[in-house]
Amino acid sequence: MVSLLYNGSPQSPQQIGSDEFRRKLAEIAQGRIIIDERAGNALGSETALLAAMRSGVVDMATLSGSVVSSAVPEFGVFDVPFLFRDAAQAKAVADGPVGALFAKPFADKGLVLLAIGKQGFRNVTNSKRPIRSPADLQGLKIRVLPNEVYQMTFKALGAEVVPMEFTLVYSALKDGRIDGQENPVMTIATSHLEEVQKYASLTGHFFAPIAFVANRDVFQALKPADQAALIAAAKAGAEATWQSGAADETKKLEELRKAGMEIIEKVDRQPFIDAVKPLEPEFEKRFGKDLLARIRATP
Q1: Is 39 helix (H, G, I), strand (E, B) or coil?
Q2: How confident is the model at residue 30 (pLDDT cuts 50, 70, 90)?
Q3: Where does this protein have coiled-coil stretches (predicted)?
Q4: Where are the beta strands (DSSP E) in the chain?
């Protein structure tokens, strides 16, 4: 039996990807591998889930890339703000030679990267005012993941940064400890943040991948045919997240509007891009100038 955990809400990319993974694995493995699937923060935060997988308590998980990068810093290149033009470019990077570069750093940390999926581009929500420029973020307490690149980015944009696990965000928004947060549209909608947030600005500042990850010892203990089945199923699950596209987001945005959230769709991203340009030397130091150039040049 292989345990599979994820922290997504129903209809979230994690749920979509995990469901397709399980379906495909049943088709390929013909009962040789039984999946014990659990969702909804069964072990707490994603950080706790990652630690449980690295220690062998959990066999496999679908995790936000920004959480995985705390263990595999090289994967944090996906966190660089405004690095990706659109989802098609991000997919070309994830599925191509650049994506293949991450196999070794994952293995070095006792993990196997089975596939890379899509959570989506992240956007800012808050309870105070529309965000149309970095100036609008001044003085707002914005929750970000406990991730250095996320924190330095929002400090550069002028926000008061509050690192926090996502499991705590709804209650913190509700009681006013924070003013806003940032996440993909699907996460905003499936987590019902419209109940505690008035404004959503489609800034698209970070692209958020999903990593389909397994404990290396568990993976290596499987027979070669079962390893291949696990990889194929993970790739199918990842593909399902990529195929969950613009139409789904449009539907969710309309639901958010009907629920009373003001959606600021036309955001001029250039002032945001300009505000984080001073961080480029730091990103080059962390991830390599050549790798960043290679990603930006990907069609």
Answers
A1: coil
A2: confident
A3: none
A4: 2-6, 35-38, 60-64, 111-126, 141-144, 160-163, 180-184, 199-201, 207-215, 262-264
First-to-last C-alpha distance (Å) of the chain = 41
CB count in 10 Å sphere of residue 268: 10
Distance CA 69, CA 79 (A): 9
Give the integer Cα–Cα distance in Å for 174 and 195: 8
pLDDT beyond 70 at 9: no
Residues near 259 by beta carbon (within 8 Å), at least 6 away in sequence: 194, 195
Domains of the chain, start order: 2-297 (3.40.190.170)
pTM above 0.85, yes or no: yes
Rg (CA), the chain: 19
> Which whole number is the average pLDDT over 155-166?
96
Which tokens is 248 given?
Answer: 């789904």
Token match 């309309």: residue? 254
Residue 113: closest CA among 121, 123, 105, 122: 105
**What tokens does 45 get?**
């935060």
Amino acid symbol at 100: A
pLDDT bin (cut points 50, 70, 90) of residue 97 is very high
CA angle 284, 289, 291 (to 5 degrees): 110
- CA distances from residue 187 to 63, 99, 130 in whole angstroms, order as listed: 13, 24, 19
Where are the alpha helices (H) located in 61-184, listed in sequence order? 65-68, 87-95, 97-100, 103-108, 148-156, 169-174
Q: Name residues whose C-beta falls within 8 Å of residue 23's C-beta, 6 or more positions apart in sequence.
A: 236
The more confident residue out of 244 and 275 is 275
